[in-house]
Amino acid sequence: MASFDVGGAGMGARIMLLFDHCCAALFTAEGRPTRSESSVTHGPLSLTREGDSIVLKFRGPAVIVPMRPRT
């Protein structure tokens, strides 16, 4: 899951990834994302239109949160 705040008061971006039911990786950035006609970027997180596709890229630090096993 990823989201960007791009409205008039847009002030951040975030991504969350779940891995094999054992942990989650979380990244959040504060501040105004950079927008162009075909992309929105905030630090290491970007969403770009490439032809008929939307490409989500992330290459940066994240907090890894272990998930408790179900009992």
Could you characterize the architecture of this molecule?
This protein is mainly β and 71 residues long. 0% of the residues lie in helices and 59% in strands. The protein is built from no helices and eight strands. It has strands spanning 2-5, 12-19, 23-30, 34-35, 39-42, 45-50, 53-58, 63-66. Strands 1-2-3-8 form a four-stranded antiparallel β-sheet, with no helix packed on it. A hairpin with a 2-residue loop joins strand 5 and strand 6 (45-50). 8% of the residues are buried. The mean pLDDT is 86.
Q: Major beta sheet, specifics?
A: 4 strands, antiparallel
For the terminal residues, how far apart are their CA atoms? 26 Å
Q: State which percent range the strand residues make up.
A: over 45%
Principal-axis shape equals globular
Short précis:
The chain has 71 residues and is mainly β. It has strands at residues 2-5, 12-19, 23-30, 34-35, 39-42, 45-50, 53-58, 63-66. The chain is globular, with a radius of gyration of 14 Å.
Keywords:
four-stranded antiparallel beta sheet; 0% helix; 59% strand; mainly beta; 71 residues; globular
SSE layout and pairing:
Layout lengths: L1 E4 L6 E8 L3 E8 L3 E2 L3 E4 L2 E6 L2 E6 L4 E4 L5
Antiparallel strand pairs: 1-2, 2-3, 3-8, 4-5, 5-6, 6-7
